[in-house]
Please model this.
Amino acid sequence: MAWDFSSIGKVQNVLTATYFQRNDVVMLARDLLGKALTTNINGQTTTGIITETEAYAGISDRASHAFNGRFTKRTSVMYQKGGIAYIFLIYGIHHLFNFVTNVAGKPDAVLLRGILPFQNKTLMAKRLGIRNLSYQHTDGPGKASKALGISTSLTGESLEGPFFKVWDVGLQISYDHIVTGPRVGVAYAGEDAFLPYRFKISPTIVHDQL
DNA sequence: CAAACGATTTTCT
DNA sequence: GAAAATCGTTTGG
Model:
């Protein structure tokens, strides 16, 4: 079943901090699939439909940067109240974007792992250095951030604007179109490496839109 | 201060 | 499929 893109743009509700402050980060990671993330960088707007996420569940999650209450200059934003961005650099190259969730003091976050280019694809392609943009150029956490112009300098910024906004655009992703599995690159996390905290929209559905 | 290590991507065989 | 690229953050002395 293909997405009904004709409905996108008609129902546009901005997700508020209240939404992100809910305490079930795993549910939020799944619920964010199909939502739209807009960035406004240097007066330039780009939007992607969220296609893949991972949940990082606070101080008890061995895969989380905040495991065991680890509090550093980098991770401190995770402990703020939900509704802001946590962006960090990985492998010296990639800027990874997270939605900080839950209330202050509970360092939960949802990692953005993939988007479907939606608005201002021209600029996204330019940022990526690509001629013909397709989903394979935005289907990883580093690639998605690059397409949206996200860098670590925006860490701590609000998800209610002016740099970031998250929209409910009326897309309903049914359960049978969501693939669930273990998180990527967290082999060091022991038992927690096997937790089913990764969610993605079924690739066949996404491919229908290319 | 030095060293090791990544919530990855790309480019090789 | 394996390995390099590449540098800020973290950790240990």
